[in-house]
Structure formats: C-alpha cells, structure tokens
C-alpha cells in the first residue's frame, strides 16, 4: 500500500508545524441507498468507495475545472433545480449559450443506453469529462485542470485515499465523477411513499395518476388516458430510448438529434427520453427548452404534435385521432400527479451538496 505524508501548517509562533498526518488509501465501500428501486447494474471496473465518491463530489462542485475558475459541473446541474439548469440554455465561461438544455443528473445508476440528449457518450465517465474541453461550457484543457488540481494538497491527498497514490489523471477524474453521479438518487417523492402505502394521493392526484398510466383509446374517449407511461414508465419514469416526440416536422428540424451520432436518417429528430422525476422543479422542458411550463408540455401532446417520418408510432395514432382529447380538468389533474414526483429530501440532501 502506497501512502503519502501531508503536513498541516499553522500560524502559531510557538509551534511552527504539527505532527505529520499520514494519508493512505481507503477502500471502504460506499453503501448506495436504492430504497425500493431494483439493484442497478453498476460498472464492475469502478466499484463505489466512500473516498472516490467524495473525490467525485469535490470535482463536481469545483470551478477549477473551468478555464477562468468560475464554473463547476454544479453551475449547470444545480441540486435545488433537480440537478438541472432552469435557463433554456446554460451559459459557458465565454458568455455563450449552449446548444441544448442541460439534462438532469439524477438516477444515472439506472441509465443503460448512453448519455446526453443524443447519446454520444456510451458511459457516464465519458460524459463526465466532455464539458471541460467544450468551448461552449468550461472551455478548459485536461492538462490545465490536472495542473491546477496537482497544486492543491487537498486534492493530492484525496487521490491517495481514492486510488492509492497522488497521481492525477483524466481517467481517475472521470471515474471519480462517475462514482459521485451514480450516487445521486431520487426515490423518496410523494409518489414513492404512495407506492409503499405510506400516504394517500389526493382525488386530483389520483385522477391524474389514472390518466398518466391509462392508454390512449380514440374509440372509447370516456375511457381513454393520456398514455404518458408509453415513454415515461418504470421506476424512473423514462424508457431509456431515443424517440421523436413530435416537436418538429421533417421540414422544420433544426436539430437532428440522435442522427448526428448514428448517421441514420431513421434517428432524425430523436432524443433521449428523460426521467420525469422532479419534473416540476426542472423547467424549461424538451431538448431545446422550448416549453417553460408543464401546461405547455401537456398542450403539445394534446393538440400540437407535428407529423414527421420518424415520429413515434404511438404519437402518430394521437395525431391521426386529432389529439388526446384532454379537458382543462384533465390537464390540471395530470399536473397535480406530476407534482407528486418531486422529492424534496433529494433536493436538500447534504450528501450531494458542495463539500467546500
């Protein structure tokens, strides 16, 4: 086992320095609290440890990763906003807006099909580093980041605790950031308490729940639901797929989405289906943040879907039927249910907050 000796200096004239504090590797495993969720498939080559998660949290919240030391990952993934950004497009260190709305960093342990809106990063550790060198985001180089971190005794010590020595590399940074983001778990909303039979939903919330999970049936309007579960299902209220949800027609695509990665025209206008957990606190909505409210989102699916060659088949059915046929009360009830997905404990959990 490799260890490094760190010294703490004090201003006391009688005692110029204290005794050396030995810093050594600590492989204590991190206990991931998954609650009532199923066990996730975590990377076997990056086992969660307390010290590596702590290192990842330090890196996530540290503006040293940006060119002018002004922005951190948390600047665009704010915990109080569900680890997303309430700006339509995040502003980078150059003062230039990004291209797409910042996705929420939450429940990544259950994500299995790529990262970013277009899925260009197959693993979370790949996604973790890309913003550093992106000119629209942190606009820094890996070499400069390593130099800055290497000049901090606290970081050298933490790399020892996490990896066994104080070598700071992009691979280790990526793994630490991946570990921290894998621990960001939201599973204690009112809906979760309802599932565990700890609370009851209000009549409005319950009717919204039935509409949410009810299938669209144009032949029996009185029994038809909003069919939200088709795309936003399961414990994380998403399906891990890339889909075209009718935002644009073939003639009006301004962002090709998944096609930019796969180069397949059949992926045109398809984007990662995001989780709806904490959706009430993560506006604006869609990959380009075009909708500022949940009311606008529901109106889109009810009345404004645009036909295109890659539109999801379930939504084609809605277009052909002339919409979902939701009443004003239906929409209010749906929104009431969506608010039950807000996890206040998650938004305030100090385990995810800045360590500085």
CATH architecture label of the largest domain: Orthogonal Bundle
Task: Enumerate the spans where pLDDT stays under 50 for 5 or more consecutive residues.
Answer: 1-17
The CATH homologous superfamily of the largest domain is called Cytochrome c-like domain
Largest sheet: 2 strands, antiparallel
Topology:
Blueprint: E1 3-6, E2 21-24, H1 50-61, H2 73-76, H3 124-133, H4 142-150, H5 153-163, H6 170-182, H7 190-195, H8 203-213, E3 242-243, H9 259-262, E4 271-272, H10 294-303, H11 313-320, H12 328-339, H13 344-348
Antiparallel strand pairs: 1-2, 3-4
Compact overview of the structure:
By secondary structure, this protein is mainly α. It has helices at 50-61, 73-76, 124-133, 142-150, 153-163, 170-182, 190-195, 203-213, 259-262, 294-303, 313-320, 328-339, 344-348; strands spanning 3-6, 21-24, 242-243, 271-272. It has a two-stranded antiparallel ribbon with strand order 1-2. A two-stranded antiparallel sheet has the order 3-4.
């Amino acid at each position: 086992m490799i260890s490094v000796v760190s010294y703490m200096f004090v201003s006391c004239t009688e005692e110029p320095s204290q005794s050396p504090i030995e810093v050594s590797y600590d492989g204590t495993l991190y206990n991931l609290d998954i609650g009532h969720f199923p066990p996730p498939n975590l990377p076997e080559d990056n086992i969660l440890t307390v010290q590596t998660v702590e290192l990842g949290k330090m890196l996530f919240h540290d503006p040293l990763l940006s060119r002018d030391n002004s922005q951190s990952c948390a600047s665009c993934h704010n915990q109080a906003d569900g680890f997303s950004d309430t700006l339509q497009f995040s502003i980078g260190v150059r003062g230039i807006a990004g291209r797409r709305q910042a996705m929420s960093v939450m429940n990544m342990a259950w994500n299995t099909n790529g990262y970013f809106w277009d899925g260009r990063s197959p693993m979370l550790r790949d996604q973790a580093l890309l913003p550093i060198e992106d000119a629209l985001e942190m606009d820094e180089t890996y070499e400069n980041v390593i130099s800055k971190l290497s000049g901090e005794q606290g970081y050298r010590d933490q790399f020892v605790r996490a990896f066994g020595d104080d070598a700071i590399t992009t691979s280790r940074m990526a793994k630490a950031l991946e570990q921290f983001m894998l621990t960001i778990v939201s599973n204690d909303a009112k809906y979760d308490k309802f599932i565990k039979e700890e609370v009851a939903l209000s009549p409005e919330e319950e009717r919204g729940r039935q509409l949410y999970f009810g299938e669209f049936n144009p032949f029996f309007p009185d029994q038809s639901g909003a069919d939200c579960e088709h795309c936003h299902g399961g414990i994380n209220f998403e399906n891990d797929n890339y889909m075209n949800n009718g935002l644009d027609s073939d003639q009006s695509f301004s962002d090709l989405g998944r096609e930019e990665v796969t180069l397949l025209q059949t992926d045109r206008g398809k984007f990662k289906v995001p989780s709806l957990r904490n959706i009430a606190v993560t506006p604006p909505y869609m990959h380009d943040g075009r909708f500022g409210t949940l009311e606008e989102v529901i109106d889109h699916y009810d009345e404004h879907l645009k036909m295109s060659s890659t539109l999801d088949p379930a939504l084609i059915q809605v277009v052909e039927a002339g919409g979902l046929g939701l009443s004003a009360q239906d929409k209010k009830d749906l929104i009431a249910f969506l608010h039950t997905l807000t996890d206040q404990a998650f938004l305030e959990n100090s385990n995810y907050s800045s360590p500085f």
